[in-house]
Amino acid sequence: MICIIEKKMMFIIINIHCVDLLSQGQHRTAQKERATMATHNSKGQKTAFVTGASSGIGKAAAIALTQAGYRVIGTSRKATSGEVRDGIRMVACDVTDDASVTEAVALAFAELGRIDLLVNNAGYALSGAAEESSVEQVRALFDTNFLGVVRVTNEVLPIMRAQGAGRILTTGSVLGLIPGPFGAYYAASKHAIEGYSESLDHEVRGFGIRVAVIEPWATKTAIEANSPQGDRPIAAYAKTLARYRMAFHAAMADGDTPEDVAATIVAAAQDRSPRLRYPSGKSAKQTSFARRFLPRAFFDRTLRKQFNIA
Ligand SMILES: NC(=O)c1ccc[n+]([C@@H]2O[C@H](COP(=O)([O-])OP(=O)(O)OC[C@H]3O[C@@H](n4cnc5c(N)ncnc54)[C@H](OP(=O)(O)O)[C@@H]3O)[C@@H](O)[C@H]2O)c1
After folding, report:
1. So where are the chain's domains?
2. Which of 116, 185, 215, 263 is the one with CA 20 to 30 A from 136?
């Protein structure tokens, strides 16, 4: 008798579990459909907010998204009221300033009616030996490259949660996978983006929102010119640093175009099966693969050779 009751209970438990799995599956399908509607719907309904859209990757992404049918608002710290630049409606936003971010997102939401896609792109690099940067310089870098992303994302998330859909893409870097020499803090800021994005994606998926990182390789933009070097130079590093810089310039000259990365951003925005990481271009894909599968010692030697510091 006990055996029959046990069997019946098992049957009921299995059934409850199956119903649960089925409803979870249906829930997930509904979420996927909502997300797909938000990102792939008829023209007027797709909207995007792109930070750092005044030059380089952000500008190319804003243009490419417009061409793909999105209504886009881009940001620049220097944007003037009502400005349209290269066909892109620009609003002023400094991602290091809470009030500026709140105002820019509110303005974008008021104009667009919804925000289907956020592209967190504003950022800069910092080169030199780790020892050559003051804590203030590192703090400023993280304030833009990491906390800037947090500020904008936190401002956009309530909008996306209310919509029940949205996609957040952040411009990381291959250096978010490989901590190369003479870019310790930049690499650390991009590693922070990787960790943050992966955690966030778990948390917001249930609201129909997906989060991903775009991982460009060296890309021909104004990033070198716009990025500071260590603010307390140390002569002991000068020779190796000069050799590294030569190798870095060569990689940049041979790099991808901002339009290449913009194409990856559009593809990630429209991907029906979103992934967490989008390495952009052949070199980024190869490096991402090598990092995962090559023995560490071999990878270490190759990297030192590539940056001319072996
Ligand atoms: N170029 C590369 O090789 C490469 C490789 C991997 C990843 N990335 C990443 O790609 C992103 C774009 O860089 P890029 O190469 O296109 O450089 P870029 O041409 O120098 O553009 C940087 C953009 O960020 C904006 N920006 C900088 N600080 C800001 C702040 N505090 N608040 C708001 N906006 C700010 C700038 O806008 P305003 O100055 O007009 O405000 C500009 O639009 C960055 O996150 C960078 O780390 C670049």
Report:
1. 30-306
2. 215
